[in-house]
Amino acid sequence: MRTSHDLELVHVTKRYAGGAVAVADVSHLFVGGRYVCLLGPSGCGKSSTLRMIAGHETVTEGQIVLAGKEVAQLPPAKRGTAMMFQSYALFPHLSVIDNVAFSLKMKGVDAVERRQEAGKLLELVDMTKLADRLPAQLSGGQQQRVALARALITKPQILLLDEPLSALDPFLRIRMRAELKKLQRELKISFLHVTHGQDEALALADEIVVMNAGKIEQAGPAREVFNAPTTEFVARFMGGHNVLSLPQGRFALRADDVRLATEGAEAVVTSVEYQGAHVALTARAAGDQEVLVLIPEAIFFSDPKYPGDAVRLAWDASRLHKLSA
Amino acid sequence: MDRILKSNNLTGWLLAAPLLLVLVVFLVIPVIVIVIVSFWQTTEFSIVPAFDLGNYEFLFGSAVTYDVFLNTFKYAFLTWAFTLGIGFTVAYFLAFHIRSQTMQIALALICTVPFWTSNIIRMISWIPFLGRNGLANSALLSMGVVDHPLDWLLFSDFAVILAFVHINTIFMVIPILNTMMRIDKSLIEAARDVGASGAQILWNIIIPLTKPGIMIGTIFVLTLVMGDFITVRFMSGSQSANVGRLISNDIGLLQYPSASATSVVLLLTVLVVVGGLMRVVDIRKEL
User: How much is the average pLDDT of A46-70?
Assistant: First the structure.
């Protein structure tokens, strides 16, 4: 599975001056040419990991290998990475085209040639018409496209995106994430995208890497991480899962795999929430366990339940996933 | 009545009234008085209200005026260049090399410590240091750098510029620091990310974004230096003159109309300079 554009973290640790550990001995192989999401709650070390790969944060211990080259000690621009910042960090005093051409200007490329090159990138992100505007005159989505073009003009092997969609409103976020995915497919380079939104990660990622407390909890294809969480943290963070304590151990069970039946575990309905396609019913079962049940709305309303009703919960034993932690 | 009180126009004027009153009484009226007096006639023993261009004719007819204005511009330019160099460096250090905000505030306050005493005292304190038998000369002599005391250290243009720079650098530091602190640190990371070196970041990102602060500091320093007379008098040992000293001398001789005429010309000169600067950089968005 290895390609020539792989990114590998080898026992990478980030310790701050005060002694706080942001990233603790993380090792992972990011296969080249894929869309990978680093997913986790705030403070889990995902941004620190990204910034270490980009070169904006020093690595305390360990190695970062990109395309067979150890890059941890190189300056950001010499690594083959490019970063897109959370707030886009466009230079406010430069026009769109000069923002995109900035890296070429730094290399000493003459004005005509660099503007021509920047024009191509603006075409790629569909911003040609606004080339002479200043960043302050652009909408959030347009600023993001410019930031993308500015990062891509350096011809990176891997594009690092730090919560790129968090500054956008919900509708734009969904549109821009489709564009990111499309762009990644066209460019065939790796995208490493940091996010705290599991829906964003599921929608975009070929591979999801879930982080918690400076460590990788689970990594794998999106469907695998969602369907077969290995730890309680992943099950709860991905959402839509129940974590059940049964005599045989702790298990994750998808909420839509639980059904109301005539036989099964006894429970009392505590709340009912209509969610459109589904109804989310919460019930309290033996041992004070809260169980979430997602029921297709047509089925629910053929026999509606109300808080206080006694119900029985059933599931296929094959749908239980044993949790290691 | 109710409707009049509720009208936005009236409340606006009422809110602005106190400031307007202060400005009219303490700025507009005095300036008008100066302009009026500048047209009056004087003899050795009397001042006569009139509309007479004699003061201006004398002013523009005298070679001394041009020398003194030239000297004023020289002081202003040199002081500006040095305060800008020092002020930018200090502000840059505070804004980008000091990581903790507490430390930044503490150091910025230390920059203001010299202001705890009057600037005349600060100026005079240079005299024992720079004098013929002062600290600087004794140190240089004992180190063997020079074999006879340097005369140009005190009561010279050097001393004037030194004192001006000493007194006015803070007016450069504070506005530049203020604009630098507002520069998003991720812009610098972004520049480094696309391959800019430290010097390229300084030239292409930090200086352009600091321009409004530089401009505000420039206006402070230029107006303060061009209007000054006491520094020039003390530090040059009354051997050099600027426009401020011309005015002060006239006042000492009770030649108020002549002093007024010089003041009006100086005021217009400073306004033209500041107006020119404002055209170069738009500082309004910083205020």
Answer: 92
- Give domain status of residue B146, yes or no: yes
Q: Which two tokens stand for residue A323?
A: 């949790």
From chain B, the residues in CB contact with A50 under 8 A are none
At a CB cut-off of 8 Å and minimum separation 6, what does A90 contact?
Answer: A99, A135, A143, A146, A147, A150, B190
The whole-number average pLDDT for the span A216-221 is 93
Residue appearing with tokens 């079962």: A285
pLDDT (0 to 100) of residue A84: 93
Overall average pLDDT of the B219-231 stretch = 92
Residue B286 has pLDDT above 70, yes or no: no
Place of tokens 């040199």: B78
Helix intervals (H) in A36-126? 46-54, 96-107, 111-124
Q: What's the confidence (pLDDT) of residue B47?
A: 84
Q: How many CB atoms lie within 10 A of CB B152?
A: 10
Mark which residues 74-103 of A lie under 8 Å from B by CB: 75-77, 82-83, 85-87, 89-93, 102-103
Query: Which chain B residues are Cβ-neighbours of A83 within 8 angstroms?
Result: 189-190, 193
Place of tokens 């005599």: A247
Q: What range defines the domain where residue B138 resides? A: 67-286
Q: Of A16-20, A37-41, A102-106, B42-46, where does mean pLDDT reach its minimum?
A: B42-46
| Overall average pLDDT of the A198-227 stretch | 92
Cα–Cα distances in Å, from A113 out to A117, A127, A240, B190, B212? 6, 18, 52, 22, 31
- With an 8 Å Cβ cutoff, are B194 and A102 in contact? yes
pLDDT at position B44 over 80: no
Closest alpha carbon to A218 in A205, A232, A204, A206: A232
pTM of the model: 0.82
CB atoms under 10 Å from CB of A271, counted, come to 13
Residues 53-72 of chain A with CB under 8 A from chain B are 54-56
* Option in B186, B187, B194 nearest A106 (CB): B194
Instruction: Assign B1 a pLDDT band (cuts: 50, 70, 90).
Output: low
In degrees rounded to 5, what are phi and psi of residue B177? Answer: -60, -40
List pLDDT tens digits, range A265-318: 888 999 999 998 999 999 998 878 889 999 998 988 988 888 988 888 888 888
The beta-carbon neighbor of B205 closest among A91, A107, A153 is A91
Question: Which CATH number characterizes residue B211's domain?
Answer: 1.10.3720.10
CA distance A289 to B125: 80
Whole-angstrom Cα distance, residue B52 to residue B50? Answer: 6
The reply to whether B240 falls in a domain is yes
Q: How many separate domains does chain B show?
A: 1
CB B193 within 8 Å of CB A83: yes
Question: Does the residue B34 lie in any domain?
Answer: no
Mean pLDDT computed over every residue of chain B: 89
Assign 3-class secondary structure to B84-152: HHHHHHHHHHHHHHCCCHHHHHHHHHHHCHHHHCCHHHHHHCHHHHHCCCCHHHHHHHHHCCCCCCCCC
Q: Per-residue pLDDT tens for B204-213?
A: 999 999 999 9
- Secondary structure class of B7 (helix, strand, coil): coil
Q: Hey, are the CB atoms on A75 and B192 less than 8 Å from each other?
A: yes
Query: Which helix (H) or strand (E) segment is B253 a member of?
Result: none
Task: Establish if B3 belongs to a structural domain.
Answer: no
